[in-house]
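Journal club side-thread
Mid-discussion, someone asked how the predicted structure for our own chain would compare to the paper's figures. Pasting it here so we can look after the session.
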Amino acid sequence: MTNAAEDAYEALRGAILSGAIRPRERLGEVELSRQFGVSRTPIREALRRLTAEGLVVFQPNRGARVAEWSLSDLQETYEIRARLESYGAALAAQRIDPEQLPRLSLLCDQMEQRAQRMSPQDLDEIATLNSELHAIVIGAAASQRLTSLLSAVVEVPLIVRAFRLYTPDALARSMAHHRDLVAALEARDAEWASSTMRAHVLAARRVLLDAMVNSPDL
């Protein structure tokens, strides 16, 4: 893959995940090539990769658009994520480098500090810190196949700004899950880590689905 194609992929993926390009928004090759300063060939390759990841969909006579998710899509996505990430957490409990544990604890500290304020900016920063925590855990599982399978489903909360939907109680529960997960990893208890991760992901699913039911235009 050329550098131009990789750069286009990273730029377009970043724009989708940041919300700069929203769900259902059209992704025209000509417009994107102008926006990112590359030819249409790298854009086409970037769209192909993002389609494979589930972040972009192609529609007949309409071209490429940013994917959107129905209730059933999200239910399935989070169930897949719960199964895969709980397995990854179990592996991480057995394989994690002890030197990574202080970083996980620090991430918990930083998220909890922001959770006390709950401004939109703090909640978006929690989403970023949360992604880093999950990435460290999955990385510690040391399974390239697992990482590949999770590459799309773990990004859904970022795209829909899920942490902005949390109530104070739901956010406190999420923070407590993080602490339990780190404790399980420190104890190298695979079963504890797995069950905590599954509960954490399914609780996040409940928050998102409830919000979508109560706000259909979300």
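Post-session note: The CA atoms of residues 181 and 193 lie 5 Å apart.
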